[in-house]
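Posted in: Protein Modeling Q&A

I'm a second-year student putting together a small comparison for a lab meeting, and my supervisor asked me to include a predicted structure for Dynein assembly factor 3, axonemal. I've never done this before, so apologies if this is the wrong subforum. The sequence is pasted below exactly as I got it from our records. If anyone can share the structure token output, I'd also love a short note on what stands out.
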Amino acid sequence: MWWGYSAPLDLRCEIEEKEETSKSLEVLIIGASDARHIIKTLASSYKHSDCSIIYHIIEPTMEQVARSILLLSTCLDKDLGLQEATRYYLEIMGNTLLRPATAKYLAKHSKLLADTVTQTIDCPWLNLEKLKHKDRDQLEWIFKFWERATREGVPIVDYWDRRIRKSLKTRYDYRDGVFDWDYHMILKPRGHSNLTIHEYRFWRNNGIAFTWIEGEPARSNPTLLNNIIPLGDGFLHYAYLGDITNGPFFTWALNEEKENVKLRATDIAEREVMRVIHEIRTKEPFCEELVAAHRDPSILNGIIITEMPSSEIEYESWTKYDKYEKQSVPWISIPSTKILFHPLSTLDLLKNKAEYKEKFDTIWIAHNMTKQLPNIIPLLKKKGHILIELRKYLSELRKEDLESFTKELKSTAQVCGLREIKSFNSETHTIAQFCSN
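Accepted answer (user: helix_wrangler)
Welcome! Here is the predicted structure, written out as tokens:
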């Protein structure tokens, strides 16, 4: 639930060209779990004509809303170096443990975002007016919890291990064999050429996906915890309830062009995130030589971290950060972009509101939200595109499950009056493309 299972898309490329190029576009993204499509589209804006875009985002939980805001904010933080922002983004997105520098950034930035929710600090690209007051209160609690939990530490690796034990039961003592089977027999044949067995096994054991030789992950990442609610002077949460079988490797780390086969998934992800941050900042193409230019090529394909750090390091307490001053607000200016979050309950209501009828040029839907298609079709413009994430990289699904999902999706789309743009199946594709008639 914390990351997607398909590559980021430049949504401008998915919008059908018309005789007159529209000066404003409306995009709806449902259940993406992260901000990758917004980030990719922002990065590619210099390739297209000037256009203002309003992104309407719906996520199943407020924790996912908070993470999307945090990941966007990290990419747009002009005070960070290029490699610094890249690694902060990847660690926060996909690691249970963070390097100390990343954790300090998370604690400080969570304080900034809590003040943004209360409008103490203005964030020009973020619009929360569609959220209910209780949703905004919950969002503020989440950011405050992250700031406190990063400083004080939470036993997230223990939470992870409990999930593994509960999932594998009697097979727990032979878990490396289970992980190897999933990798060699399921994920590798489906085409992820750069994900190494070392990376995948290390992540399955402890939840750390992205590692580098320049630092050791030691601080817990509270952004991966669920159902955060305040209680007295503290907070309650439901530990870690996210993905423990597939990993965050199927977004930025996918390398379907089969180039640079000697790079790890971590190196591919670093290159792609660095690319989009660079292009957002400069509006210019990315120079490939910027990636890992300081590193010895002989270690690019080696797993960097092979042992877990001491748990005593994780629980070392830090002092509380002061508030940001208004003049230190760090975001890059993106005047043509607005990001508007809606509560999940609006999915049932938008189709009945006149202002949302045939409103959106493009709609993107996660693989687990396809039941909502009948509610979503009335929102799409004539000849607008619907993009649906498929389940190719879900290791718990077998061939017959993928075939069943493909068949069910095609049937539902036909009933809803959608036309396939390209033929697809869940075994070989990650996105299904449809067009309204």
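A couple of things worth pointing out for your meeting: The mean pLDDT is 86. Residues 317 and 432 are 47 Å apart (CA to CA).
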